[in-house]
Write a structure and sequence with these properties.
5 strands; five-stranded parallel sheet; alpha/beta; binds 4'-phosphopantetheine; globular
């Protein structure tokens, strides 16, 4: 039985992420949503715990999900599960280029750890956590881009962040 691991920065989780989570959870008996560090991204908006909390909030109704935080290589997380497969969403050709590199490194390091790509639903193809963070920094409306429960929590906590200068 395969365990699906859906890794990401999730800073914060978006509607695009949630769509992939909902679809992936139908493909595998158990889906582990893993908050991992992306070394190419500067210090984020949310703490690791806040990212995990928001994912748990948004995925409450999905029974076969576990949300974890992991500091280290994705292949080392995958080793903790008996029979894991990585799941990633692809929004565009640009994503594919980067994702191929990552999947190939993980395949080599992880002793043939497989990656399954799910296409992002067209309505979320331009949605990203960095766009959301940029909007938040300038007081823009993020309601259309994050799950409703996440929107309510972020609004309630008056989380704003600062602009990265690029989306
Ligand atoms: O949401 P993101 O930022 O696209 O997610 C990228 C992430 C966190 C999945 C990726 O950077 C990752 O797997 N980081 C952990 C370290 C690792 O295993 N890197 C792959 C070998 S280069």
């Amino acid at each position: 039985m395969k365990v699906g691991i859906y890794p990401g920065s999730f800073d914060p989780i978006t509607k695009g992420h949630l769509d992939i989570i909902e679809r992936a959870a139908k493909l595998v008996p158990k889906l582990v949503v893993a908050v991992l560090v992306n070394p190419n991204k500067k210090q984020g908006l949310l703490s690791d715990k806040e990212r995990v909390d928001l994912i748990e909030l948004a995925t409450q109704s999905i029974p076969n999900i576990e949300v974890v935080y992991f500091s280290g290589l994705l292949v080392d997380l995958a080793r903790l599960y008996e029979d894991a497969v990585v799941i990633r969403g692809i929004r565009s050709g640009k994503d594919l280029e980067m994702e191929l590199d990552m999947a190939q490194i993980n395949w080599q390091l992880g002793k043939e750890l497989e990656t399954i790509f799910l296409m992002t639903a067209p309505q979320y193809s331009y949605v990203s956590s960095s766009v959301v963070r940029e909007l938040m920094a300038f007081g823009g409306d993020i309601k259309a881009y994050v799950p409703e429960s996440v929107y309510d929590r972020l609004e309630k906590n008056h989380i704003r962040g600062e602009s990265s200068g690029r989306c």
